[in-house]
Structure prediction request, 714 residues.
Amino acid sequence: MMGRIIGLAFIIALAVSPVAAEEPQISIPKSVEAGANFAVGFESGLEKGDEVTIGTAAGEPIAQAPRAYPTTDSPSVEIAAPVDPGDYTVVIIRGSKPIATRPITVTGASASLRAPAKAVLREQIAVEYEGPANPGDHVTFVKLDGTPILYAQRAYPNGKQKGTLEMIAPEKPGRYKVAYFTGVKPLASVPLEVTGASASVSAPKLVRIRDRFEVTVEGPANPGDVLTLGDAKGSPINFSAKVPLRGKQSDKLSMTAPQHEGRYTVVYLSGSTVLASAPLKAYAAEATLDVQGPVMTESDFRIIWSGPENAGDRIGLRKPGGPLFGDLAHADVARSFGDAVLLRAPAEPGSYEAVYVTGGTELAVLQLDVQPPSATLYAPDAVQGGLDFAVVWEGPGNQADRVELVKQGSDRPVAHTFATRGNPIAIWAPREGGDYTLRYVMRGGKVLAEKPMRIRPPAENPGTLVVGDAGYRRFGTGTAVEILLDLSGGPSDVAAVKETLQKLVEHALPREANLALRVFGHGGPESCRSDLAIPIAPVNPQAASAKLGALEAGGSGKAAIAASLRKVAEDLAEKRGERIVLLVTDGEEGCGDNPAAALRFLAEQGVDTPFAIIGYGVEDAERRYLLESWAGIGAGAYFHAPDRAALAEALLRAMRTPFEVVDAKGGIVARGRGGEGAIPLPEGQYLVKYRIEGLAKDAEAAIAAGNTTAVPLQ
Prediction:
């Protein structure tokens, strides 16, 4: 009995005692090329769940190394060698522990590439390669320092150790490398310079909604290039139909007009880059009218319209049932600003009608309720003299409406700012303390609102801020300067202006800038021409000076100021850097148009172009006031130039960098231009805000009582 028990215990012990596992026997090559796949074969000892990976020379598994999972049915697996040469091990892992290792040497891999040295953006290029063609090997684009480019195209050899790959150059111009990678390791690279591409699009300016129309296009015709519809500013419209280019660098294509009326563009799109665009207006067969904002007596307001835009179409006001185009305002549709015409409301409040007329037929009528004008001013009750302060206003906001400051007991303004400069606006407080009145005044002198204010005397011992050294605007390579020149004056006046401008382009404009010249007020009796005498191009002082010298006074030509302003966006469309426009004129619009409306339209369309208006030989105070009000639209500036010497100084001042000084609370306390004298300020911390080469900049200024702080613009 006892023997049976002992025998049974022995059998149980055998069942539960661990059996020593057999170490797997594997076969691998002694060496393998970096990044290449190699076979790991199991000769014996393989168990379910065993893993194969790569380890260090000491046998420690390498994190993130690839792993392979053999089975009894497939005891041989492939695994990728590391991309860095050196001594490694093949490690067998069972459970979570290494149970066997075998040494392996990884040798270096090499590759070579041939590609064009230059390509335009998104151009298809042929890249010749030789390399190991390991699984996952690829050719791609990297930055000059080797940094990968997010979402850059990859092309794969697909097992072929020698061949040619078709690739699309990067979309952004710059210097790159074409690189051959095995895993994450580059084996070879060659430089590639990507340049910008140019294109042009020509389309009808006016099409009926949903009609087919033809577009003439020239461009690189890269793979994937398309024509599509964009908004009025040239930005592609999401989900708009795309018309592929057919590989022809010059072609005519058919498109479908938008389904809804409005202003659009036809856009040449290469990837996500807009290479060119052309304006397009879609209209319905009927006309519509709408009004923007309340209509106040003797105030400018906008009628937004759509219609056939036939020659001679007009929009005008009338009393209900009364005649059209009498004493009340009217405007030609051809002189619209975008989809709107600007009209002046009648002097008497009441009910009126706006009417769209084509060929004597009324297509649309809009009822208007004209109300008496009103305004409200919001400003501090007391401010410190010698500094700017902010005013928030409500009112008509007409061209030449102004907010002015008068000392109580006097009717003569000591400071003023035009309402068209924005909301809020900044106005200067005089240094003389006392009681003042802030008031909103319409162009005709009618006061709509008043607010009493107290101005405190300036600090007794202020510090001084000096901004800039030479202070002239630093130009970037994309900066564009356009001169709008009025030739309607007499020969002596025009000769003086030409001579001064010649000196400007010869000596003051850097060669990195671009220059355009548009002239008007010429062309003979009753002419309203506006001609682009010098298209935008890098400054050529000799050619520009010769062109200016050849210009002649317009004699009886009319000054088409508004028409010239309308052309600015088109003239400078291809330039994306800082843009500066110099309008040299005596200020009289001669073609029945509205320069103020043209400037306001440009500002509202996002045309980021500061206008410097230079009034040469303007003696009439009312006309000078009018020019100053124009400059107030879109943050421009007015420079008075009564004679030749003043004209030269005005042109140089217009090229200097404008700046604003902001206090610790974020309020504008002073404005000026670089290199134009010292500004007294109370002690404290300030920021000088300005733009250089199209970029917004801030410079800190710590002002101490009695001391001078210099801030260079750089």
User: Anything to note?
Assistant: The domain at 112-195 is CATH 2.60.40.1930 (Immunoglobulin-like). Residues 516 and 536 are 4 Å apart (CA to CA). The two ends are 107 Å apart (CA to CA).
